[in-house]
Amino acid sequence: MNYRGWKCGVTALVVMNLLCGLGATAQDAPEKPKARTFSPVEIKPEPRKLSPGTPLSVRTLVLRPPQIPSVLSWTIESKRHRGYLVATSLSPDAKQLATGGLDGIVRIWDAETGEFQKALVGHDSYIYDLAWSPDGRTLASGGSWDATARLWDVRSGLNLRSLKHPGYVAKVAWSPDGRMLVVSGGESGICLFWDVTLGVERGKVEHGRHVLSSVWSPDGVSVAFTCSGQATQVFDTEEFKTRISLGETALSDTNYGSAWSPDSKLLAVASSAGTKVWDAASGDLKQTLAGPMTTVAWSPDGKVLATAYSSNAVQTWNTADWKLIKALPLGASALAWANDGSKLSLMTSSTVTLWDVATDKALPTIDASGPASRVMWTTEKLMASGIGTNVVSVWDIATGKLAKKLEGHTAPITALAWTLNGKTLASASADKTVRVWDAQKGELLKKLEGHTAGVAVLSWAPNGKQLASGSHDKSVRLWDTVTGKSLKSLENHPAAVTIMDWNGKMLVAGGPSNTVFVWNTTTGQTVRKLEVSAQAQSLSWSPDGKVIATGGVDDAIRIMNPANGATLFKLSLPGDPPSVTALAWSAKGETIASGRANHTAQIWNPQTGKVARDIPAMAPVQEVLWSETNRTLAVGTTDRCIRFFDTVSGKLRATLITDHDQVPAISADGHYRADSEPELVYVVQTESSQDTLSPADFAKKYRWKNSPKDVKLAD
């Protein structure tokens, strides 16, 4: 099949030279840069497959939307992403930014001002990649584990096409004329070439390994693929086969990303061993830029190469002599140039910043994912957030109103723990201290000092007067929180103490090792060392104090007898990743709830070893907690949410979101409760568009009345 015809009509790129700190002078720049032009590509939309009353996605906050005339489906969404970013794409005119990540929602931003514009809802899993079409009309998104690439008309919000993939979707890349899209992914690195106008598959290649990047050459002749543990492959789109491999077949380093020079002659490959610049025709290595790099981007005029590695400074290189021009005062996990070379996009796990070349300064940073911390719910009146920051925020559960800010820690907070009566809060920090607060009054009661490294985990004794703290100094300390004195220090842990549970007499503690210690906290003696087959990540005493549940990096929960070390029951459920990250017994010990890294929570019968309820949590689980009646299970996840599930039906009741200065609650049937005007929008799917509306505009247009009293978290 001949693919060269696709590139017809693509004009040569003429851009202004880079200015200021990127190495060029003002007199070198042309008076006016010429824009790249493209013939618009028409993509006819598929028929809508939604039935009225069904959710836009399994990942939305509103899973049971009431039917509204002329509306297929709708949901409420936060303006900011819930969780970390994975992908971003800058529109060809550099006016809009698209972002995607953990929550599976595409968000569109004004690139100049950072203002949120709209959400595109439809994926049922992470978004791993985004790519704007050359004509700027269509956005392609890779939906990872929902195994689809989707094409969006950004103006109308319509999902034009869903392209099914045989495995997860990792990367999407457009041909230069915008008529073809290569979709890569799956365990075997399957890459499918799609005619986007017809939705027809035109070709296929399989690499046998994970695809980490795919980049179409500007002349349309080649696609470069980088895969884990494999040389970079340059794929010929005319002969439809690999034309050349760049580097050794067996690699000791990993190739992450690549970028073509504008003339399609050179390919820069970012790797763990530095950035290598190859002659794509001969396979000769032209240059190696020192330092591990994970992303690389070539300026449109070919004069500058930008490279980045995680949080390290972005580096810019002069391609004439390969000397370093400068290091920008920002890090990035992804880089992209505007088509006219005027801006460089820098993405981190939570923000996107545009570096303006002419002024050599950053434009306002887009805070795309909001705070990292989720709220710590209790069955009482108050809840707290602040992990990852230096300040504890205390919230009123009934209203979502901020009650107090507790300041004093000098390094990020690592753990929070409430007493059973919900009145006293303890906070641990990387500053090596523990602070005990009267949460209602906002007063510091005690500052507990003694650890020689950051504190990682806390556990109260049932009486609410004694507190245990586990640290990276490999010890557990027991504290009298009335006097502030350290009662005992439990030493000899083989690694940092990061998980712990205390029933008042016996304390179980562990960390990144295969050994869990059981301590008698009255005598300070070790009762038992429990050997687990995989590193423990969660611990929980049964209510009667007779057995311990442990969960680790494998897929099993072990119910163990601390008296003799015997494993009484092993509860296994496959998952990817398999880690059991949270455990909580019900009040009477008849069931146990588990949370897992694979975005699920379970309710188990420990006697039979069977799952009574398997619950989709939508993000890796960090905490599970029962309501007082056991009729609700609260599941805290890495997307700064707590979701509340009915334990009988398994259905979602409502979701709490930590969002800067508020904690709005959203019911699964579309009502919300917030202290003030929330950072929320409505996303509405009709036959002809997917619209993003403010709460006021939605209420006016569809005669919808929000009912805060109908938002019930738990029974």
Keywords:
715 residues, Methylamine Dehydrogenase, Chain H, disordered N terminus, mainly beta
Topology:
Layout: E1 73-78, E2 85-90, E3 96-101, E4 106-110, E5 116-120, E6 129-132, E7 138-142, E8 148-153, E9 158-164, E10 169-174, E11 180-185, E12 190-195, E13 200-206, E14 211-216, E15 222-227, E16 232-236, E17 241-246, E18 255-260, E19 266-271, E20 274-279, E21 285-289, E22 295-298, E23 304-308, E24 313-318, E25 323-331, E26 334-337, E27 343-347, E28 351-356, E29 361-362, E30 366-367, E31 382-385, E32 391-396, E33 402-407, E34 413-418, E35 424-429, E36 433-438, E37 443-449, E38 455-460, E39 466-471, E40 476-480, E41 485-490, E42 499-502, E43 506-510, E44 515-520, E45 525-531, E46 536-541, E47 548-552, E48 556-560, E49 567-572, E50 580-585, E51 592-596, E52 600-605, E53 610-616, E54 621-626, E55 632-637, E56 641-646, E57 652-657, E58 665-667, E59 672-673, E60 680-685, E61 690-693, H1 695-702
Antiparallel strand pairs: 1-60, 2-3, 3-4, 4-5, 6-7, 7-8, 8-9, 10-11, 11-12, 12-13, 14-15, 15-16, 16-17, 18-19, 19-20, 20-21, 22-23, 23-24, 24-25, 26-27, 27-28, 28-29, 28-30, 31-32, 32-33, 34-35, 35-36, 36-37, 38-39, 39-40, 40-41, 42-43, 43-44, 44-45, 46-47, 47-48, 48-49, 50-51, 51-52, 52-53, ...
Portion in helices: under 10%
Q: What fold name stands as the CATH topology of the domain at 1-33 and 256-370?
A: Methylamine Dehydrogenase, Chain H
| Strand line-up across the major sheet | 54-55-56-57-58-59
> Rg to the nearest angstrom?
27 Å
Helical stretch count? Answer: 1
- Main pleated-sheet profile: 6 strands, antiparallel
- Unreliable spans: 1-35
Distance between the termini: 62 Å
Principal-axes shape call: globular
